[in-house]
Amino acid sequence: MRSRCRSWACMRWPAIGIAVLTLCGLEGTGAAELEPPARQEVPFVCAQVVLAVDGSKSTQESAFHRQIESLRAAFGSEPLYHAIQDCLPGSVALAAITWSGADQQDLCLDWSLVTNRDNGQRLAEHFERCRYFGGSTDIGRAVDYGLRVLESSPFASYYRIIFILTNGRTDRGADARLAAARARAAAAAVTLAGYALLRPEPKGPSPLLGPVARPLELYVAEYVSAGPRTFTAHSHPEDDVESLLRALMELLRQEAG
């Protein structure tokens, strides 16, 4: 009887020990297998900004290159980075597109993080990739393309902005498309910041030519700019760089405030 009990115990306790060790091993393996993968943090910036450069026929090629040079000069300017650093957490994500009519939109500068002047100067060197189309002026398509670029951004932010430079009004027949694109931007809480590139003033217009067309900056303010913090600015050819720099700084300060 005693030997049977001892024999049973000898069989019982190792078996229990093996079972416990096996169970622990299985539980450990299961826990490791069920543990979700570590999430990769999405970089957070103050604002994501798409710079939409007008490459349509209303902008002569010389004026197009003036836009590019103005942007390059703006991003080489120290005051811009004070505005970026004031826009918490002190960084901005930027992409640049050129646009014209149907199937004439191009992402010429992919998303880049800018926190200081060195970042901006490196980014400015790549503006030369932006190309001139010379096609129709379809601002609605530019907005839609800018929205798609924002959706593809690898960043997260408080604010999302499409900064639309334009030298003219959208073509006839494309007004409904622009209105629909503005509505989509507003629904997505995207700010459309319109920037009118004014042409040189005509010298001594004749009164026989009829009423003067509505100024471009008023058209841009009414039919282009939209969103939760609507913004409009303009420049004359002789002050493109200074006006563009001021507009970018003011836009960032508006978001920071």
- Give me the CATH superfamily: von Willebrand factor, type A domain
If you compute it from the alpha carbons, what radius of gyration comes out, rounded to the nearest whole angstrom?
Answer: 29 Å
SSE order, as H and E?
Answer: HEHHEEHHEHEHEH
Order of adjacent strands in the largest pleated sheet: 3-2-1-4-5-6
Q: What's the main sheet like?
A: 6 strands, mixed
CATH class call: Alpha Beta
Q: Describe it for me?
A:
- The protein is α/β, with parallel strands linked by helices.
- β4 (156-166), α6 and β5 form a beta-alpha-beta unit.
- The radius of gyration is 29 Å and the shape is globular.
- The chain has a six-stranded mixed beta sheet, sandwiched between helices.
- It has one domain: von Willebrand factor, type A domain (Rossmann fold, 3-Layer(aba) Sandwich), CATH 3.40.50.
- The chain has helices at 2-34, 61-74, 78-86, 117-124, 139-151, 175-187, 216-223, 240-256, and strands spanning 44-54, 92-99, 105-114, 156-166, 190-197, 231-235.
- The chain starts with a helix and ends with a helix.
- Residues 1-32 have low confidence and may be disordered.
- It contains eight helices and six strands, in the order αβααββααβαβαβα.
